[in-house]
Amino acid sequence: MISEDKLRDQALGYTVIPGYDSWPYEGPGRWAVIDPELDLTVWTNDKTAVAVIAVLSCNEMRPLLDRRDELYAAGKSATEAFDILTEGLDIVTGDLAKAPFKPAHLK
Question: Is 106 within 8 Å of 55 (Cβ atoms)?
């Protein structure tokens, strides 16, 4: 039997936070690779979306998702949240539809 905590933790990894969309994967945007080994990436369209993507759901995503939740609760825009989450990282700007990342179900 799977524990309720495990189910809750897995469900939280896929929860969309009101105010920050996780779509669309098209149009102009920015992204930064947080961890190349995990293919852990944060991206934004600088309008409504801030999302965290990894090849597999992993524990390393949780702190980023928690921080994103805190930034939303503090009233930060998608642009401000992305800038805070990716401070000090190399940022790539381009068409999100041509970005080298996508959740597995969109590849």
Answer: no
pLDDT tens-digit readout, 67-96: 988 999 999 999 999 999 999 999 999 998
* Three-class SS state of 48: coil
Nearest C-alpha neighbor of 98 from the set 9, 27, 12? 27
What residues does 29 pair with on adjacent strands? 94
Burial class (CB in 10 A: 0-12, 13-18, 19+), 7: exposed
Distances (CA, A) of 22 to 4, 12, 30, 97: 25, 14, 13, 14
Specify the length of the chain in residues. 107
Predicted structure pTM score? 0.73
Residue 12: other Cβ atoms inside 10 A:
13
**Which amino acid type is present at position 41?**
T
Q: Where are the domains of the chain?
A: 4-98
